[in-house]
C-alpha cells in the first residue's frame, strides 16, 4: 500500500507542473505582441524611412522584454518542480518576481492554517515576520481575493502604516495580488515602490498575476512536503520514547532519548530537559552533554523554564531580546546568542498544572522562531514523555536525592539506588517465588521472638471482643495501644467479619494456628515486626470492607488477601536486601542475590501453609487451593518496590479509561490484580493514618535505618547513604517528604480515583506532606541563620 504522504506529493508535483504551464500560456495571452497599425499612405502622406525604423526598433524591444519574462516563468517551472524545501520555494518565487517587476521590495506572505495571521516568509528585511491576516492591503487582498494597485499608499485607508514603522521603510506605491491554490487563497505577493519612482502599471499586475498561478501550486506542494516531514519527525520522536518506555529504560537513558528526539523534532540548536522537584521548589538537569551543568538546579518560578514549571504555561519567544521574560545574562557569560525559544511542560500525572518536567528548545534551525506547528508537535511529544515518566517517577525522585547528596559527599549511584529501592526489604525481581526450606538460623538469637501461647488468647466474640471491634473497624484504630495477643485475636476477627470460615468451610482452629505461626516468624526489629504486619492486614481489611473493594472480589480472594497481608514480611531480619548481599548472608546465597527478602517472605509463608495443623485448605477443591495459594504468593511478591510504578500506572490508567476498565468480579486476572494493589497500598499506608500512628511508624523506620547504618560500620561494608546522619532533623524530614510525595501520594491517588472512599486517606497523606514541607523550610531557615552568625 502506498504512503499517503508520497501520493499527495506526487499529485501536488504533477499539478504544479501543469499549473505552471498554464500560467506560462496565460502570460503569453497577457503579453500578446501588439501588431503595429498598417500605414495607409495617401497622395498627401509620405512615410518617412526613419519612422519605420523607429517603429521596428520599439517592436523588437517589446518582443525581447516579453520573451525574457516568459523565459523567467519557464525557468521557474523547471526550478521549483523538484524543490521541496518551503523556504527555498519562496525564495525562488521572490527572485523571479524581482525579475518580472522592477520594485524596491517584494514579499511573499502565506496564510496560517487558521487564517488568522500571515507570515512574511521571504523579504529582504522582514523574514518570518508575522502580521494580522485582516490588516493592511495584504489582508484586504487575502480576504477578498482581488488585486490592489495604488499609487499613494498613505492616502489609502486600507494601508497599515505600523509595518513601515516597524521596519523603518516608507511605502509609496504598491501592487498586491492573491496567490491561489486548490480553489482558495493561500497568500499574497506584494511589490512596493517601483524602482523608476513611477506607479505600477497594468503590465506589472499581469506579471505578478501570472506568477501567482505558478506560485500557488509550488507553495501547496512545499506545504504538503513540509507537513509530511514534520509528521515523520513527530512520529519518529514519539516512537523512540515509546520504545524506551516499553524496554524499561532507566531515567538517565529516557532523558537522553527525550533530548535527542527533541533536537530532531524541532530542529533546535540547543535542548534542555529539566525535571521538577516540587518538594524543594526547584527544577534540575538530570542529564546533559555538558558535565558542568549536570545536576544544575533553578528555583521554580525563576526564569522561563522555572515559570513553565510553576503553572504549566507554554512560552514561545519569537525574539528573546525583545521579551521582558528573557534574561540575557547567561548569553553574556557564555557568548552564545539566544534568538528564539520554545519552552513547554510535561504535564503532571494527576494535575496537569503541576508539571513533572520541562523541555526547553533554543534557536530554530533554518527559521527565526518556532511556530504553531512546532508547539503542536512538542505538545504531543510531551504527553508521550509523561506516560514514559510515570513508570520511572520513583527512580527520578531517587536520582534527585542522590544529586542533592552529591553536593555534600561523593555517593556511588548504583549503590544508592539499590539501597533506597530496598528500603522496605525489596529489590528488583521478576522471578517466581521459590519454596526454599525455612532456614532462620542466620538470624541473631536475640532478634527472634518467643511464640505466643495459643491458650492465652481469647478466641471468639466475648464482650471485650465486641468492644474491640468498634475500635478496629476504623482507620483511626490505635494498634500500639494493644498487646500482640489482642492483635492476633483481632486478625481472626477480620476473617469472621467476612464469615469466611463458614463460606469456605475453613477449620477455625487451623486458621488460628496459621495466624499464630505467621506471627511467630516476625522478629524483634524496630519496624518490620508484627505491628507492621498487623497494620497492613488491618488496612487491607478496611479497604475491602469499607471502601467497596470486597464487592469486586470472591470469598477466596478476600481470604487470600488477608493471609498475604499478614505474611507479606514474615521473618524479616530488619535489614535491606543490599546489606544481606553485601555481607554474603545465607539468605542472599539461597536466593542468588535476587530479590532476597520478598522471595524469602513468600517461601516462608508457603512452607507454613503445608503443615497439617495449619491446613486451611482442607475443604478447598484442588482448583480453589491452587488459586488461593497463587494469589497469596503473587501478592507477597507484588510488594516489591521495583514494581511500585506498575501499581501506580495500572491504577491511574484504569481510572482514566473510565467505568468499563473497573475491576471485573468475573475475571480472575482482575481480582488477582486488585488483591496485589490492596496489599501494596496497605504496605505503604503509614502516612495515610492518623498523626499518632504515622509518627510512631516514622520513628520505628528511622530507628531501623540507623540500626542498619551501625551494622554496616561494624561489618566494614559500604554504607547506605540515606541511612546515615538521620539524627539530622532536616535530612530526616527531607527523606520522609520525598517518600510521601513521590511514592505514597501517586499510589493512593490512583486508588482513590477508582474507589472514592479512599479520599480521606489521600487527604491525610497530603496533610503530612505539607507538614514535612514546613519543617524542611524551618530547618533550612534555621541552618541559614546559624551559618550567617
UniProtKB/TrEMBL annotation:
Outline the segment boundaries, as ranges, of region: Disordered.
Answer: 427-458
Under InterPro entries, the record lists: GAF, GAF-like_dom_sf, HD/PDEase_dom, PDEase, PDEase_catalytic_dom, PDEase_catalytic_dom_sf
Give the PDEase domain ranges. Answer: 445-779
- Annotated AMP binding lies at 528-532, 569, 683, 736
- What's this protein's name? PDEase domain-containing protein
Q: Where does Zn(2+) 1 bind?
A: 532, 568-569, 683
GO molecular function annotations of the record: 3',5'-cyclic-nucleotide phosphodiesterase activity; metal ion binding
* Alphabetical keyword list: cGMP, Hydrolase, Metal-binding
Query: Which domain of life does the UniProt lineage start with?
Result: Eukaryota
Any one biological process term the GO annotation gives: signal transduction
- Which positions are catalytic residues? 528
Positions binding Zn(2+) 2 in this chain are 569
Amino acid at each position: 500500500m502506498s504512503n499517503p504522504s508520497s501520493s499527495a506529493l506526487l499529485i501536488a508535483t504533477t499539478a504544479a507542473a501543469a499549473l505552471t504551464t498554464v500560467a506560462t500560456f496565460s502570460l503569453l495571452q497577457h503579453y500578446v505582441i501588439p501588431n503595429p497599425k498598417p500605414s495607409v499612405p495617401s497622395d498627401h502622406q509620405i512615410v518617412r524611412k526613419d519612422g519605420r525604423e523607429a517603429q521596428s526598433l520599439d517592436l523588437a524591444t517589446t518582443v525581447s522584454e516579453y520573451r525574457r519574462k516568459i523565459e523567467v516563468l519557464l525557468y521557474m517551472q523547471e526550478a521549483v518542480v523538484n524543490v521541496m524545501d518551503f523556504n527555498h520555494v519562496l525564495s525562488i518565487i521572490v527572485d523571479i518576481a524581482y525579475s518580472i517587476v522592477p520594485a524596491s521590495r517584494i514579499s511573499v506572505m502565506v496564510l496560517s492554517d487558521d487564517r488568522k495571521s500571515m507570515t512574511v516568509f521571504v523579504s529582504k528585511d522582514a523574514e518570518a515576520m508575522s502580521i494580522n491576516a485582516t490588516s493592511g492591503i495584504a489582508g484586504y487582498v487575502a480576504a477578498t481575493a482581488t488585486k490592489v494597485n495604488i499609487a499613494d499608499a498613505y492616502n489609502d485607508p486600507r494601508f497599515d502604516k505600523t509595518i513601515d514603522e516597524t521596519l523603518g521603510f516608507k511605502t509609496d506605491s504598491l501592487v498586491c495580488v492573491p496567490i491561489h491554490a486548490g480553489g482558495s487563497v493561500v497568500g499574497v505577493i506584494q511589490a512596493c515602490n517601483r524602482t523608476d519612482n513611477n506607479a505600477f502599471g497594468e503590465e506589472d499586475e499581469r506579471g505578478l498575476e501570472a506568477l501567482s498561478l505558478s506560485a500557488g501550486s509550488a507553495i501547496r506542494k512545499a506545504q504538503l512536503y513540509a507537513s509530511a516531514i514534520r509528521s515523520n519527525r513527530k512520529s519518529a520522536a514519539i516512537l523512540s520514547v515509546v520504545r524506551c518506555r516499553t524496554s524499561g529504560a532507566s531515567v538517565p537513558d529516557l532523558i537522553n532519548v527525550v533530548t535527542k528526539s527533541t533536537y530532531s523534532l524541532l530542529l533546535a540548536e540547543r535542548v534542555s530537559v529539566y525535571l521538577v522537584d516540587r518538594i524543594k521548589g526547584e527544577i534540575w538537569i538530570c542529564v546533559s552533554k555538558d558535565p558542568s551543568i549536570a545536576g544544575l538546579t533553578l528555583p521554580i518560578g525563576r526564569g522561563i523554564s522555572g515559570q513553565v514549571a510553576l503553572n504549566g504555561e507554554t512560552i514561545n519567544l519569537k525574539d528573546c531580546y525583545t521579551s521582558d521574560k528573557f534574561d540575557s545574562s547567561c548569553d553574556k557569560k557564555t557568548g552564545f546568542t539566544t534568538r528564539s525559544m520554545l519552552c513547554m511542560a510535561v504535564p503532571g500525572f494527576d494535575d496537569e498544572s503541576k508539571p513533572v518536567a520541562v523541555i526547553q528548545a533554543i534557536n530554530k534551525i533554518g527559521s527565526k522562531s518556532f511556530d504553531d506547528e512546532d508547539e503542536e508537535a512538542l505538545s504531543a511529544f510531551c504527553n508521550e514523555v509523561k506516560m514514559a515518566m510515570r513508570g520511572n517517577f520513583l527512580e527520578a525522585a531517587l536520582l534527585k536525592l542522590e544529586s542533592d547528596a552529591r553536593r555534600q559527599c561523593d555517593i556511588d549511584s548504583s549503590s544508592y539506588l539499590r539501597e533506597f529501592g530496598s528500603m522496605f526489604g525489596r529489590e528488583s525481581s521478576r522471578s517466581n517465588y521459590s519454596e526454599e526450606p525455612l532456614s532462620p538460623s542466620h538470624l541473631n538469637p536475640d532478634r527472634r521472638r518467643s511464640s505466643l501461647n495459643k491458650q492465652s488468647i481469647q478466641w471468639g466474640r466475648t464482650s471485650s471482643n465486641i468492644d474491640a471491634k468498634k475500635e478496629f473497624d476504623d482507620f483511626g484504630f490505635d494498634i500500639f495501644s494493644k498487646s500482640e495477643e489482642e492483635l492476633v485475636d483481632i486478625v481472626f476477627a477480620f476473617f469472621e467479619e467476612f464469615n469466611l470460615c463458614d463460606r469456605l468451610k475453613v477449620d477455625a482452629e487451623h486458621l488460628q494456628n496459621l495466624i499464630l505461626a505467621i506471627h511467630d516468624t516476625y522478629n524483634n526489629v524496630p519496624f518490620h515486626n508484627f505491628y507492621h504486619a498487623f497494620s497492613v492486614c488491618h488496612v487491607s481489611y478496611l479497604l475491602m470492607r469499607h471502601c467497596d473493594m470486597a464487592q469486586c472480589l470472591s470469598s477466596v480472594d478476600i481470604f487470600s488477601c488477608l493471609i498475604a497481608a499478614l505474611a507479606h514480611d514474615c521473618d524479616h531480619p530488619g535489614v535491606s536486601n543490599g546489606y544481606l548481599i553485601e555481607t554474603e548472608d545465607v539468605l542472599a546465597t539461597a536466593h542468588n542475590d535476587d530479590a532476597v527478602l520478598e522471595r524469602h517472605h513468600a517461601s516462608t509463608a508457603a512452607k507454613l501453609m503445608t503443615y497439617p495443623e495449619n491446613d486451611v485448605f482442607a475443604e478447598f477443591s484442588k482448583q480453589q487451593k491452587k488459586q488461593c495459594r497463587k494469589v497469596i504468593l503473587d501478592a507477597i511478591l507484588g510488594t516489591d518496590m521495583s514494581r511500585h510504578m506498575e501499581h501506580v500506572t495500572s491504577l491511574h490508567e484504569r481510572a482514566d479509561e473510565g467505568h468499563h476498565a473497573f475491576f471485573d468480579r468475573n475475571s480472575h486476572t482482575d481480582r488477582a490484580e486488585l488483591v496485589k494493589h490492596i496489599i501494596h497500598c496497605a504496605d505503604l499506608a503509614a502516612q495515610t493514618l492518623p498523626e499518632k500512628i504515622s509518627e510512631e511508624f516514622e520513628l520505628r523506620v528511622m530507628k531501623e535505618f540507623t540500626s542498619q547504618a551501625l551494622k554496616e560500620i561494624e561489618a566494614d561494608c559500604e554504607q547506605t547513604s540515606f541511612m546515615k546522619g538521620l539524627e539530622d532533623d532536616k535530612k530526616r524530614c527531607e527523606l520522609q517528604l520525598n517518600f510521601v510525595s513521590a511514592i505514597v501520594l501517586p499510589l493512593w491517588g490512583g486508588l482513590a480515583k477508582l474507589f472514592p472512599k479512599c479520599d480521606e486517606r489521600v487527604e491525610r497523606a497530603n496533610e503530612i506532606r505539607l507538614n514535612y514541607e514546613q519543617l524542611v523550610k524551618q530547618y533550612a531557615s534555621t541552618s541559614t541563620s546559624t551559618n550567617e552568625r
